[in-house]
Write a structure and sequence with these properties.
The protein is of the alpha/beta class. It has helices at about 20-40, 60-70, 85-90; strands at about 50-55, 75-80, 95-100, 110, 135-140. Strands 3-2-1-4-5 form a five-stranded mixed sheet. β2 (about 75-80), α3 (about 85-90) and β3 form a beta-alpha-beta unit. α1 packs across α2 (about 60-70). It is elongated and about 55 Å long.
């Protein structure tokens, strides 16, 4: 059976650019769309906006890349400083905040990329999704 056999819904078919290796395209089609879709839905694709990313795993990496590509100011939140250099120097985030420091916790939106996130002293964040792979953007 070839790729030309069978019926496909055009809505679910993408033409991959010939110069994009499939191994490079896979993260964009999986993690990339999980991050891109809620960003677009909640208008977090406008240059000049401030964007907070909670966690620095696979979804967090992609969120930083999209945020910077959209021209936004990107802040990464983690409970420890262990990935600060990677976030700022490798991925291009503008700020890195250790979430246990209440003085630094000022942001409008979060992209939840992990199951738990430490908030101090009654601070509020509206985080949607119960599993690692269900990150969503929601206004506070």
């Amino acid at each position: 059976m070839s790729v030309d056999d069978g019926v496909r819904w055009a809505r679910f078919v993408l033409k991959m650019p010939t110069n994009l290796p499939l191994d490079a395209a896979a993260p964009l089609l999986c993690v990339g769309i999980m991050v891109y879709s809620p960003m677009k839905h909640y208008q977090m694709d406008v240059a000049g906006k401030h964007f907070g990313v909670v966690g620095l795993g696979g979804l967090g990496h992609m969120a930083i890349k999209f945020g910077k590509a959209f021209g936004m100011t990107v802040t990464v939140f983690r409970t420890s400083p262990s990935k600060e250099k990677e976030a700022l120097e490798v991925l291009g985030a503008d700020r890195f905040i250790v979430s246990k420091d209440p003085e630094q916790m000022k942001v409008i939106f979060f992209l939840k990329t992990q199951k738990s996130f430490h908030m101090n002293n009654g601070q509020k964040a509206l985080l949607v999704g119960q599993s690692f792979a269900s990150g969503c953007l929601m206004p506070m």
